[in-house]
Amino acid sequence: MTRVVVLAGGVPHAHDFAATGAALADLYRAAGDTVAVVDHPDAVVAALAGADVLVVSALYWTMAGDAYDAWRAEWAYTTPPATRRAIAEFVGGGGGLVANHTASICFDDWPEWGDIVGGAWQWGVSSHPPAGPVHARVAVEHPVVAGVGEQFELVDEVYGDLAVRPGIEVLATAQRTPDDADQPVVWAHRYGAGRVVYDGFGHDAASITDANNARVLTQALEWVTGGN
Description:
CATH class: Alpha Beta
CATH superfamily: Class I glutamine amidotransferase (GATase) domain
Number of strands: 11
C-alpha cells in the first residue's frame, strides 16, 4: 500500500484547493493508497515521515506585483529552510513526487524547486489563457500516459513558456492558442534517486476527475513509486 501525502492549499483567488485536494485524495484512495492531506507546506515536514509519495497541488508564493496587492498580506509565502530541506531530501533520497498544475508556480523564491519539478513558471515570460477546451497530444510511449490514446481533450489551462530543465522527458504537449508552439504539459524525470511527474492539468476538480487526466495522475503515482 502506497502512503501518499497531498499538499493542497494556497491563495484562493483563482483555484479551489480544497476541492482539488479532495479530488486527488479520492482518486488515490480509490486505487488503494493511504492518503493524508495537508493544506500548508510547513506541515509537509512532519507529514513526509514514512511517506512514499508527495503530491503537490498548491500555490504558495511571494505574490510580487501590483495585481496581488489585495492578497499579499494574508497569503505571501517565503519557503523556510526546514521545508526546503524536507522536500529536497525526500525526493532526492528516493521518494516520489507528482506535481500538479500550480506546482510549477509554487515556491517561486526557491530555485531548486524548479529543478525538483523539472520546470518552473517564469514571471514576465510564462502565460496561460483562460480555462477552456484543450487538445493534448501524447508525445511518446511511457507508462504514465499509457492507455490515453494519441490525443485527449479536457477543459483546463495550458501553461506556456515555462523554464523547463534539461533532461525532462516530455510525455504530452498542448497549445495555448491555435498558432502557439507545442508546450510541454506532462513530463517525467529523475531528481537524485527520486522519480518525478509533472501534470500541468488539474486546474479544478473536474479536470482531476476527467477520465484521461485521472488515468495520467493514477499512473504517475504508480511510476514515481518505481512501478512499470
